[in-house]
Request: fold
Amino acid sequence: MAPTHVLSRRFAPVVLALALVLTVAGCAGSDSSDSAGTTGATGTVLGQNPAAGDFYQPPDPLPKGKPGEIIRSQPLANPPAGSQGWLVLYHSTGLDGEDIAVSGMIFAPAAGSPGSTAPRAGDRPIVSWAHPTTGVADTCAPSVLSDGPTLIAGLEAFLDAGYVVAATDYEGLGTPGLHPYLIGVSEGRSTLDAARAARNLQETGAGTQLFVWGHSQGGQGALFAGQLASTYAPELELKGAAAAAPAGELAAVFDLDLNTVDGIALGGWAMNAFYEIYKGSNPDMSLDQMLTAEGQAALPQLETLCDVIPDQYAQITAIATPLIGKFYATTDPDSVPPWNTLLQENSPGATKTPAPIFIAQDTADEVVPASTTDTLVKDLCSIGNTVNYKTYQGLSHTVIGFESAPDVLAWMQSILAGQAAPNTCS
Reply:
């Protein structure tokens, strides 16, 4: 689901403490001969929102390429200390099996840094990060945001430990086309193909061992990536899938969030994406089943705003607050066909993941309530997954990814050391 208002309220001090001045601007050059690759995103001060630049526009027609093959790349000017970073545009697979372009960022330890010798280049494990909700407009893509790298929970610790970090923007964020918000297969493929892209940048020294890790919307994406890895990206050796406050039981999450600002923004984005994607195969499907006329009238403006930017989150609040109790046409999303079936299909846990799973959850989370994650974990355990479920007290949805990242890294390190993964399934 979301790091709703991540940079605007309680989350901002955490991000600022990690990296106040990270930017994806001022690129030193391009690894691509395509002239469109020389512009890219423009850097701004924290909280500003530059438009996606020419870098994000794929060639038309798009040259054929395998998933993860890089279309173009260019160095990031200011990656975290001791690292090197790239803005990338890479091939992935769309919902209809078509070849598409997806953007993202890739980071690797720099020579002489703590992570440069552990392990040696060529064998570095990959962490493919799936980001929390930032919005559905192209300008909300993390790699477009001046502070985008600070949204990656645990980035500097992973780099110091010798990992390569891939961070997808997802299909349709930054790049042209609809962002399939909370469509699990789309997020999972983008996340796996970002790892492939990291391997295709020789400078990273990335090997084949892979962990997927995400928060909220990205928790859903990471869990779907784990489910898909063995069939979609069999050349990668999935070692584990980790998720903080994952958008797991979608119908239940929406049901519990109906009368909140976040529930209106996130639910509105999701309902619009689901309708646009599934209406062709569901002729009886209508937005009227889920949203009131007032709710539908607010969608065009909501879809231009990014919930990680303070001023824009304030606009979201101003739009959504008067609609509380008036936005949704139903109080029980799980009872409305075909929406209930589609929400279930996009809830992770239907397929066993061939690697251990780590789930982090704050007991007081108001965006992804702990009760929904409890149910998700039970579902994961019921089909034979190895799950380490760890709960936290007194945090919030916005910071659970950052607060749990040290435990996630320790869990990853123990798996790479050959230790048995903890299993809290009874």
